[in-house]
Amino acid sequence: MLIVLPPSETKSDGGRGAPLDLATLSFPSLTAVRERIATALVELAGDPARSATVLGLGQRQLAEVDRNAALWTSPTRPAIERYTGVLYDALGVGGLTRASRTKADERLAVGSALFGVVRARDLIPAYRLSSGSKLPGMGTLAAQWKPDLTDALADLDDEVVVDLRSGGYRALGPIPGAMDVTVLTEAADGSRSVVSHFNKHYKGVMARSLVTTRKRVRDIDSLAAVVSDGGQRTEIASATELVILTD
């Protein structure tokens, strides 16, 4: 099973790993695209004012440009420890047992505008780049990643894939046959609406269930069973869509 998480704009600082080496990352077929985007991002960082405009940064976020400038030289850490925020707080990898952390390293991946997708254990630096960004001379990131990202994610030896990425990151590389998750809130009158910001929390809780379970996820029914065991209310919408219901 591969669970593809969305990234986060917020990332932890520092790390103990050696500087970025694209050749060590999972999904090596993506190396050429990664290098092209990384090179453009570092070059852009040489112009802080333009970087702020292209990346949509405010005055208090200009340190993000420094992160990009040091992309090839700054220390790295496992991707699952690099990304922070609501989803990653709910996932709580720091509190996992050794056995569950091993499962997390094996089962989790993170979508990325810069790297396409990385596995939990891949060593990456802090950076700033979003799915909707357009780097100078490169057009959209979706155009850069297609079809390489989809091809890489489709070549998983029939592995079950649960895609928790948001729409912008799915657009970079759709995964044929992946199981998707929608988070809905249900009112007392039975009406339902899509959960926006806090859907990240519920997906983090779900991801934690998937890396701590001993059950094997083979299809949408077994996925629903594991998520329900984790205390979340579920509903199967189709063979590839699971709904998580909240009050």
TrEMBL record:
Superkingdom of the source species: Bacteria
InterPro entries given in the database record: YaaA
Protein's UniProt name: Peroxide stress protein YaaA
